[in-house]
Structures are given as C-alpha cells and as structure tokens.
Amino acid sequence: MKLSDRNNVYYYNDGSPSEKKSADETENAPAEQEPEKVSERAEKSDKSDKTEKGGTKSSSVVNIILVSLLSAVLLGSVVYSFDRRNTVYNQVASKTNELSHAEAENIRLQSELESRMTARNVEDYAENVLGLQKIHSSQIKYIKIQTTDVVNIPEQNQGIVGKVKGFFKKCVEYFRG
Questions:
Q1: Using 50, 70 and 90 to split pLDDT, how confident is the model at 66?
Q2: Average pLDDT of every residue of the chain
Q3: C-alpha 47: how far from its chain's center?
Q4: Where are the alpha helices (DSSP H) in 18-54?
Q5: What is the DSSP string of 112-135?
Q6: Which of 46, 69, 136, 143 has the fewest CB atoms within 10 Å, i.e. the most exposed one?
Q7: How confident is the model at residue 35 (pLDDT cuts 50, 70, 90)?
Q8: pLDDT tens, residue by residue, 81-97
C-alpha cells in the first residue's frame, strides 16, 4: 500500500467504490453530517450485503437441501418398488415351481393307479386277498327258453256294461273310418 492511500477512506456500496475522501477532508467536514453518512452507508452496505449475499446463500443452500432430499426420496421409492417387484417375481417363481412339482406328482400317481388297475392285478387281488375263485364249467347251468315270443290272451266274459262299452267303441271306430 502506498502512503497516500493510508489517508484515504473508501466507501463500498455493492462492491464498487463510491466515494473517495482523504483523511483531511473527513476531519474538516462538519461533525454532524459525516457520522450520519458513514453510518447510513455502512448500514445500507451491511444490510444489502447480508440480504443479497446472505439471503441468496441461505436460500440457495435451502434449495439444494430440498432438491437433495427430494432426489433421495425418489431414489428410495424407486429402490423400494424394485425390491417389491423382485419379491413378487420370486413368489410367483416359487409357486410356479410348486405347481410343476404337484403336476409331476399327479402324473406319477395316475400312472401308478393305471398300473394297479390292470386285469391281471384285479384278478390277483380277488384270488389272494378276497379268496375268490374262477368259475368252472361244471358250475354253469343252461336254461332253454322258447324262441317264439307270442302270447295268447283268452277272451274274458264281459258283463252288460262291458258289452255296451264295446258296442260304442266299435261305432266310434266305424265313423272315424
């Protein structure tokens, strides 16, 4: 710094020097006016620095924090949804696997049932477990039946009422043709 700069007083407003006075001028200035200007300018510059710089800094920090929190929440929700989807896919896969095992067991049991239901197995079960025997030709008896299937019903004697009914039936049949 130069020696002449030591005696000068600089006032800054919004980062740019607004007035430049030497120490002699500040001493010779009236006492009442100078402190007001200095204090007003200092307060204005302090307030403007705080509101512009500090307010901007605090609001930008708050904005950054809010955006970061929002991003973290969105990322968390995406991760959670992927986790739920994978859990459901794993459950579906395990149930599908259980279904295929049950179908294979069903096919095996059907095959076993069909193999047990053969004629030879039924015959063995009837002879060995139930004690049944095959029929012999000596046990068979034949019956002769007439080949003609004609039945003759003899006429019965009718009373007077039956004869009258018969007469009316014959008349009706005659008129009908």
A1: very high
A2: 77
A3: 58
A4: 23-28, 33-48
A5: HHHHHTSHHHHHHHHHHTS---PP
A6: 143
A7: very low
A8: 999 999 999 999 999 99
Structure tokens at 161: 């009422």
Cβ proximity of 43 and 51 under 8 Å: no
pLDDT in tens, 93-140: 999 999 999 999 999 999 988 888 888 888 888 889 998 888 888 888
pTM as predicted: 0.36
d(CA 115, CA 111): 6
Structure tokens at 145: 């039946």
Of 55, 42, 52, the C-alpha closest to 9 is 42
Report the distance separating Cα 75 and Cα 67, nearest Å. 12
What does each C-alpha distance from 122 to 61, 107, 125 come to in angstroms?
89, 21, 5
- What token pair was written down for 46? 């302090």
CB-based burial of residue 25 (10 Å sphere; 0-12 exposed, 13-18 middle, 19+ buried)? middle
Assign residue 131 a region (left: φ > 0; alpha: ψ between -120 and 50; beta: otherwise).
left
